[in-house]
């Protein structure tokens, strides 16, 4: 990132949190001339940063121009980190690394475009799909943010390039100047309410993706849920494009009979897109297509990119077939709404679910329960899920761990002619470091089955 030059000379920036975002941000800011002082509450993280040449010391707001706060550290709810509270009280801006990437590009005179993608579900797939379409069209692109590399770890792009950034609500609440040339809100359902107080606070954080947009910019909004539809009615300024994964008649881009269409005809044949099953992925494809059109990509390049998109790991990923049983890794489903999207894709399912439940548990998934041959429950909130399933007459077992669940699910699916679906509808932190670790554990366990059973 030093390719932007010494554009932060004279600025003093504090960095709190030295993980995936904070450490590369500290090094990048220092390379661009800033005086950086960093801290992490973990001894090992401080030692790693010091070894990398980062100045590490306790942080105080006096004399600082900004605090770069890692996304996972709260500055308001549920309880602010003491350092963040001190900076907030002192009126020092609390920012994300995405904000600094934007400032670096504009300070260096770059006209590179910025695209932001948010929503409760589908952000990662849509971000990766748009980046894939742009790359196929020959446009220099780098994708990151909440997905993949931290923003300040991305390379400098030429003026005609595009940064495609997955924006969580945690990142969006720490922007000040960034203006997205094109931005998408995919959908809204309850999530991270502890961080934002309530649904209104969560929606307000998400809506920030459209802040500072002008008539020259594009705002894409999915209208397949009521909250997003209501939000669309409130947006003014940018050119608004409504999209739908279903046949919503007022959507400019929508899925109709397996085809992605706009007013000019067919944009893509979703039947050819094997990595994008289900209505939820039709919505993701519609959003990516709308953003690509706003960036000047041809219809042919959009159709090709949708068709050959390889997909992302841990998102409705078909990882194996053993003795006629398909295994689907949907570990990214950390809430019920996301799990619903995977459950809707299969008729007969042995479902592995559980972990740390979000508000509402799996009550909202009742319409999909007739598809569930049996549920195998793991993790802390397995008893909560068991109560819901029992009330709805769904066969289930509490098996505690994923290692116990996989062979049991295989046996049940083999007998019932079903797929095995890991779609936990829960956070993973009771048993795994993150959803990726959970998905990789599932992959290893299925590989062990394959070794024993043959393909």
Structure description:
The protein has 455 residues and is an alpha/beta fold. It folds into 3 domains: 10-95, NAD(P)-binding Rossmann-like Domain (Rossmann fold), CATH 3.40.50.720; 98-308, 3-Layer(aba) Sandwich (UDP-N-acetylmuramoyl-L-alanine:D-glutamate ligase); 317-453, Mur ligase, C-terminal domain (Protein-Tyrosine Phosphatase, Chain A). It is 34% helix and 21% strand. It has helices at residues 22-31, 43-51, 82-89, 97-107, 123-136, 169-172, 193-196, 199-207, 226-232, 278-294, 299-308, 336-343, 382-391, 402-416, 435-453, and strands at 12-16, 35-39, 66-69, 94-95, 113-118, 141-145, 162-166, 182-185, 218-222, 239-244, 253-256, 259-262, 265-269, 317-322, 325-329, 349-353, 356-357, 372-378, 396-400, 419-422, 426-427. Strands 6-7-5-8-9-10-11-12-13 form a 9-stranded mixed sheet, sandwiched between helices. The protein has a 6-stranded mixed sheet with strand order 14-15-20-16-18-19, sandwiched between helices. Strands 2-1-3-4 form a 4-stranded parallel sheet. Helix 5 (123-136) packs across helix 10 (278-294), helix 5 crosses helix 11 and helix 14 (402-416) packs across helix 15. The mean pLDDT is 96.
Write the layout of secondary structure elements.
Blueprint: E1 12-16, H1 22-31, E2 35-39, H2 43-51, E3 66-69, H3 82-89, E4 94-95, H4 97-107, E5 113-118, H5 123-136, E6 141-145, E7 162-166, H6 169-172, E8 182-185, H7 193-196, H8 199-207, E9 218-222, H9 226-232, E10 239-244, E11 253-256, E12 259-262, E13 265-269, H10 278-294, H11 299-308, E14 317-322, E15 325-329, H12 336-343, E16 349-353, E17 356-357, E18 372-378, H13 382-391, E19 396-400, H14 402-416, E20 419-422, E21 426-427, H15 435-453
Parallel strand pairs: 1-2, 1-3, 3-4, 5-7, 5-8, 6-7, 8-9, 9-10, 10-11, 15-20, 16-18, 16-20, 18-19
Antiparallel strand pairs: 11-12, 12-13, 14-15, 17-21
């Amino acid at each position: 990132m030093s390719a932007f030059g010494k554009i932060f000379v004279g600025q003093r920036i504090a960095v709190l949190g030295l993980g995936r975002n904070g450490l590369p941000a500290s090094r990048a800011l220092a390379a661009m001339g800033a005086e950086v002082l960093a801290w992490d509450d973990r001894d090992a993280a401080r030692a790693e940063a010091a070894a990398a040449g980062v100045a590490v010391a306790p942080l105080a707001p006096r004399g600082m121009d900004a605090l770069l706060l890692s996304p996972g550290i709260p500055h308001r709810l549920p309880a602010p980190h003491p350092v963040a509270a001190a900076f907030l009280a002192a009126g020092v801006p609390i920012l994300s690394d995405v904000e600094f990437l934007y400032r670096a590009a504009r300070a260096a005179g770059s006209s590179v475009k910025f695209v932001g993608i948010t929503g409760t579900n589908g952000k990662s797939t849509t971000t990766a799909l748009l980046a894939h379409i742009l790359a196929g069209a020959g446009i220099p692109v780098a994708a990151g943010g909440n997905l993949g590399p931290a923003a300040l770890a991305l390379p400098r792009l030429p003026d005609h390039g595009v940064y495609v950034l997955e924006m969580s609500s945690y990142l969006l609440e720490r922007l000040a100047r960034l203006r997205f040339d094109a931005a998408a809100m995919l959908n809204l359902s309850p999530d991270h309410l502890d961080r934002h107080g309530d649904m209104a606070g969560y929606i307000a954080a998400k809506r920030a993706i459209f802040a500072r947009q002008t008539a020259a910019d594009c705002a894409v909004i999915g209208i397949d849920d009521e909250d997003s539809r209501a939000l669309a009615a409130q947006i003014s300024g940018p050119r608004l494009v409504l999209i739908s994964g279903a046949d919503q008649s007022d959507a400019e881009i929508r899925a109709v009979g397996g085809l992605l269409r706009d007013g000019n005809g067919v944009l893509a044949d979703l039947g050819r897109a094997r990595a994008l099953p289900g209505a939820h992925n039709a919505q993701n494809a519609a959003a990516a297509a709308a953003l690509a059109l706003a960036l000047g990509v041809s219809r042919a390049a959009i159709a090709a990119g949708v068709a050959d998109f390889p997909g992302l790991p841990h998102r409705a990923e078909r990882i194996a077939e053993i003795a006629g049983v398909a295994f689907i890794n949907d570990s990214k489903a950390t809430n019920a709404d996301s799990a619903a999207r995977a459950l809707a894709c299969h008729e007969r399912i042995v479902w592995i679910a559980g972990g740390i439940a979000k508000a509402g548990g799996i009550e909202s998934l009742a319409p999909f329960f007739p598809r569930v041959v049996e549920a195998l429950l793991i993790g802390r909130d397995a008893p909560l899920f068991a109560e819901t399933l029992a009330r709805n007459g769904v066969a289930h077992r509490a098996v505690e761990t994923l290692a116990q669940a996989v062979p049991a699910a295989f046996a049940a699916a083999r007998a019932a002619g079903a797929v095995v679906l890991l779609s936990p509808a829960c956070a993973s932190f009771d048993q795994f470091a993150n959803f990726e670790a959970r998905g990789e554990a599932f992959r290893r366990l299925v590989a062990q089955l394959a070794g024993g059973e043959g393909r």
